[in-house]
Design brief:
Elements: E1 4-7, E2 10-13, H1 17-23, E3 27-30, H2 34-39, H3 44-51, E4 55-56, H4 61-69, H5 80-90, E5 99-103, H6 108-120, E6 125-129, H7 139-150, E7 156-160, H8 165-173, E8 182-185, H9 189-194, H10 202-207, H11 210-217, H12 219-229, H13 233-243
Parallel strand pairs: 3-4, 3-8, 5-6, 5-7, 7-8
Antiparallel strand pairs: 1-2
Helix pairs in contact: 3-8, 11-12
Amino acid sequence: MSQRIEILNVGIDNLAIDEFLNNLNRGIVFTPNVDHLMRLREDQEFVKAYDVADYRVCDSQILMYASKFLGTPIKAKISGSDLFPMFCEHHRNNPKIKIFLLGGAEGVPQRAQKHINQRIGRDIVVAAHSPTFGFEKDEAECQRILDMIRNSPANVLIVGVGAPKQEKWIAKYQSQLPNIDIFMGVGAAIDFEAGNKLRSPRWMSEVGLEWLYRLLSEPKRLWKRYLFQDLPFLWLLLKEKIKYTPQQPVNSSLRIR
């Protein structure tokens, strides 16, 4: 449906928000950001999970800047925390869309369910569940969760347990959920909808400083990710730019790839 823009060898769909929402009828949706791109360089299980995604939409203003720097600008930033409420609003009057929320601490997904349904004006979220810590390593619990989803009327599954856990879980179990048409990994979006966490001010998100707000909000949890694991992204991006920038005039007799 769209051209994929490559950043550090990861394809990202170049889609405007409206065209994405209008065409999203089935499939698995992941939302790559800088942290994803760095993890994908090391974690082969994460790579395999990403390979099953039907859509990869840009979650990061930093990646928007990177795409422009590489000469292949992405049309829109569609982060998981923006995509989820926009998806609900888009389907406000579509009774065929019924959502199951999976993620958040005890009580959080139920609060998110209540807030969303009140805002949308109908029971678009039909079920919600908070998995226990480490649930993805407990096959019996995973099967109980799958039973809950299959026994619900939901046809959309929203998973918000953080990357790369949510993407790996969706990739592993999506074939066991024939009733689900759309899968989304949305990070902290369930917490945001519940009011359990506050989003950064819009201006910080628009200029690419949402990561700084999150770091200051949760320094113990996020310092290693933002100040150590993700920092090499800038050097790798510069190397990619140099790699694809001609260093001298190309002989006209040579075919340009």
